[in-house]
Amino acid sequence: MAQLTSRERMLRTINRQVVDHYPCCFMSFTALREKLGDNLYELTKAELGMGLDTMLFIPTTPRALRREHPDLRGLPVHFDPQVKTTEWREEVSGDYPLLHKVYDTPAGRLTTSVRLTEDWRFGNRIPFVDDYQIPRALKPLITEPHELEALQFMLRPPTEADIAAYREEVHVARAFVESHGVLLAGGWGVGMDLANWLCGMEPLMFHMMDRPQFVDDLLEMIHVWNLQRMEVVLSAPPDIFIRRAWYEGCDFVTPGFYHKSILPRLKAEVDLAHQHGAKFGYICSSGLEPMLADHLAAGLDMLIGIDPVQGRRTNLTQIKETIGSTTCLWGGVSGAVTVERGTEEEVRTAVREAVQSLGPDGFILSPVDNLTIDAPQTWRNVDIFIDEWHRTWPSEPA
Amino acid sequence: MLRRIFDHILEGDAPAATECVQRALADGMDPATILNQAMIAAMDETGRRFEAGEIYVPEMLVAGRAMQSALGALKPFLVQADLEPLGKVVIGTVQGDLHDIGKNLVALMLQGAGFEVIDLGTDVAPARFVQAVREHEPMLVAMSALLTTTMTNMSTTVVALRAAGLRDRVHVMVGGAPVTRQYADQVGADMYEPDAASAARAARAAAKRRPSV
Ligand code: B1M
């Protein structure tokens, strides 16, 4: 078979067609991205230069500009213009100062407070939602069902200006992916992750057990918002649409709640992506086993983030057997434990085991979920990782 | 009544579990029997089901909450009857790490197993572990870590305990997603446990042994 472009190889793998060799596309590569000033075009070029498969993710807005939602890639998050925010700092003797934020909306007031730990990254400001603030929050933004009315004013659809800016970027991005032969990815969709950011993780689990309707209503609100954002992102259309779902494994959601409240909405989102001709990828790196049947029912095209070390209830063989004949599996090696810290032999063994258990068909190799440490050992192990990937290609190309 | 307390804890029904404990006490039931045969037994069963993948973290959290609530009602009677906990445990997530869901489950299971748990929270500096050991004289120091970047603070903590002359007075247990038995040996811990239920079992077994380092 003639050598394929990276885009062809990725798409054929996702579609379970014959490829020259199975792809290796890093799902996140922060150490490299940060070296390149958070420029995703440069990241894509650099990864191609390393011989990797890659994708261009749109919108490419860098993290620093996603002020209200650093951990939610994608279109800007806008509040209703009637929402007024106030922030202030409170000194606490003998402890970290506190930061408070109030959102006054026509449907009432929402408040949150965080401890201003030494490593707080946002100055005297609290973003709307972020991974970083959950463990520092003394009071999460949403604690009671009646607050959902106010929340509605924060989850507004993309504005005309956002849509216009996105269309402009699509133009440039499309020309780029065509000339470089790489995949165009769009996203991120979000569900339970946003609910966790808004409510806090353990409180959300208690709400789910005590007042499931409250969480269901919250998820419905997020779903509607998500669909509005998806419509815009999918208009490109990208080759794949990605939804973040780190907090949708069984360490956060019971399988029963998942089936009742997450699956139907997820399925509707998958269907929407398909209507636009995009494949649907779902990032979840832990607690996968009990949800696999629902992943199948949702029609996921890719399950992204399979981590054999840090992923709890993540059995590679079982995943392959249960969903591997229809869903493309992406990941296979721990980024933080094996690639950033492992020995050469550990990296090579992990790559071989990943392809044996998850591949070679319908499999995209990647460290999960990220490489963040810019240190000689990381770069050395990345070279070994890529070398071992090459060694596991078929000797006779298909 | 014991059966009902057991069931309510398993179901995570805190008000019902607490009310049944109060009724059992009012009926003159022995507090130690309530604790051991209903409450600790229910947490053991919770742990078993969790390990077997029959229940998940949210169910375990509500079972723990029910246990804590019922324990609140029982505690004054345990004190009156001079019933000592199995031992004290100082637990925390190591410095630099803010993950605490797993650590909280371990704390719940330890409490459910009959230990008095002193939870230092997250981002716990070695000096705070040392100070807590001095203050509370626990039989066990339990450290959790989820980040490879800061799990080395398990080792730093063990070194600090040694420097303070406290290492041979306590057992040290470590756990968390990136931690392995081999890593536990490397940092000088006595025990590695993969999950909350096994951590409680191992702590119980350790309570019968003297620390030996
Ligand atoms: C003493 O004896 C014992 C014995 C057993 C013990 C024990 C102690 N401690 C635990 N156990 C054991 O018993 C428990 C149950 O039986 C188990 O506990 P676990 O804690 O393993 O399991 C829990 C029940 C459920 N699991 C979890 O709670 C962890 C789930 C994942 C998705 C995760 C979460 C939820 C979070 N995170 Co974080 N997070 C991830 C996790 C992914 C993963 N695969 O683990 C991980 C750990 N996070 C990671 C990262 C990078 C980060 N996180 C961060 C933040 C967060 C949240 C705050 C958003 C949240 C934590 C909320 C909280 N209150 O804990 C940041 C760091 C913050 C900090 N300084 O700590 C941040 C740096 C990301 C960021 N955006 O800034 C990754 C670590 C990579 C690495 N270098 O090791 C990560 C593996 C995700 C990934 N796939 O890349 C066992 O391990």
Characterization of the model:
The complex is a heterodimer of chains A (398) and B (213). Chain A is of the alpha/beta class and 398 residues long. Chain A has two domains: 6-78 and 153-391, TIM Barrel (Alpha-Beta Barrel); 84-143, no CATH class. Chain A contains 14 helices and eleven strands. In chain A, the strands form two sheets. Chain A has a seven-stranded parallel beta sheet. A four-stranded antiparallel beta sheet of chain A has the order 2-3-4-5. The termini of chain A are close together. Chain B has 213 residues and is of the alpha/beta class. Chain B has two domains: 2-80, Methyltransferase, Methionine Synthase (B12-binding Domains), Chain A, domain 1, CATH 1.10.1240.10; 88-206, Cobalamin-binding domain (Rossmann fold, 3-Layer(aba) Sandwich), CATH 3.40.50. A five-stranded parallel beta sheet of chain B has the order 2-1-3-4-5, with helices on both faces. In chain B, helix 1 packs parallel to helix 3, helix 1 packs antiparallel against helix 4 (57-80) and helix 3 runs antiparallel to helix 4. Chain B is globular, with a radius of gyration of 17 Å. The interface between A and B is medium-sized, with 31 and 23 residues. CO-5-methoxybenzimidazolylcobamide sits between chains B (57, 97-103, 105-106, 142-144, 146-149, 173-178, 193, 195-196, 199) and A (71, 131-132, 134-135, 201, 246, 251, 285-286, 307, 310-312, 336, 368-370).
